[in-house]
Each structure stands twice: as C-alpha cells, then as structure tokens.
Amino acid sequence: MSGVHQLVVKLLYGSGLRIIECLRLRVQDIDFAIKTLTIRSAKGGKDRITTFPATLIDPLQEHLKRVKIIHEQDLEAGYGEVYMPHALARKYPNAAKDWRWQYVFPASHLSRDPRSDKLRRHHLDPSPINKAISAAVRQAGIDKRVSAHTFRHSFATHLLQRGTDIRTIQALLGHKDVSTTMIYTHILQQGGQGVTSPLDDL
Questions:
Q1: Is the pLDDT assigned to residue 178 strictly greater than 70?
Q2: Does residue 196 sit within a domain?
Q3: Which of 48, 91, 196, 198 has its CA 20 to 30 A from that of 178?
C-alpha cells in the first residue's frame, strides 16, 4: 500500500483505531508533541485518548501540509467549511472554516451536505481504504480474511504480547467493559486451551 491509504492503515494498527474513527480525525485531535490522538464521540458517544506512533510524525505532518493547501484553495473559492458536531456550529459560528477543525483525511471533492444543503469537503469514505486493503492482501498472498478492523485487533494482541496491562489496552481501545478486551487474551494461548502438544516435546 502507499500514499493516504497506507497512512490510514498505519494509524489503524499504530493507534488501535476503528476505520471511521480514523477518517473522522480533525487536525486538532493530533498532538505531535506528546504523541497522542483524541478520539471524539467514539462508540458509546465517549471521547478517549490513545497513543500515536512516533514513526508517523513526519509522514503525517507532510500529509497535513498538502491538506492545508487544499483547504486554503477551498477558502479562496468560497468554500472551506466543514461539518461541525452537535451544537458547536451555533456556539462557534466561524470555527467551521478554521484549520484546526478540518478533517485529517478529506475527500477528494466537495459534496452537498443533506443536513444543511451546504457544499462541503467531507472526510474520506471508508470504501477506497477497504478496497486497497483487499488488493494488498491478495498481492501479499495472505489466505486469511483481513479487514480494516484486523489492524485494531492486531494492535491489541501485540500490546498483550509485549506485556501491556489489560486495563491500559481497554482504555486505549475505548472498551466500556474489560470483558470485551479479555477476548484478545485467548489469542496468546497457542494450541488448544494453551496446551502444547506432547509430540512437540519429543
């Protein structure tokens, strides 16, 4: 994979994001200094903070430079307004055109918002990301089912393998109940019930 598609997938794995959480990221949700992402109104309507990979700092900053040029061109053309969540549009009427509120992964074209009938640049649709993942899986010759959510599962599993506390993983994933996070522990048990076959000891 390459370009924006690769960047999105690296964030899915590197930060444990759901694909829609990644695509809904706003510029201000990324804190490069302390390497964190703020996920707003996630599943269950709650915000959470998760880790941000240091290896993505430079690529994402370069990406945002290109996005900012697009935003500035939109403003010059009389657009540049983004959808504002909840009552924020009324509370901060000028914020919709503010750079900080723009999507990190904007769509390639403007589209009409059915809620307001305004022409806006929405975030990237999940469909091309999912197609790029499917193509990469075929190209790599992987014979298992892989989806965008697989990278979130891998994030949790690999943190467990590294000895990260289950409660920390629960917080990073935004699971309401730790029992949901505990599902990943069975992956660490290689073999049936975590038992190694006696044949392997011969």
A1: yes
A2: no
A3: 196
From the list 176, 24, 185, 27, the residue with the least C-alpha distance to 99 is: 27
For residue 26, indicate whether it is catalytic. Answer: no
Query: Which of these is catalytic: 66, 68, 138, 149?
Result: 149
Active site residue 65: no
Residue 127 lies in a domain: yes
Domain-located, residue 19: yes
The structure's pTM equals 0.86
Secondary structure (3-state) at 101: helix
Residue 179 main-chain phi, psi, to 5 deg: -65, -30
Question: Which tens digit of pLDDT belongs to each residue from 90-117?
Answer: 777 788 999 999 999 999 999 998 888 8
Active site residue 5: no
CA distances from 24 to 17, 132, 187 (A): 11, 19, 30
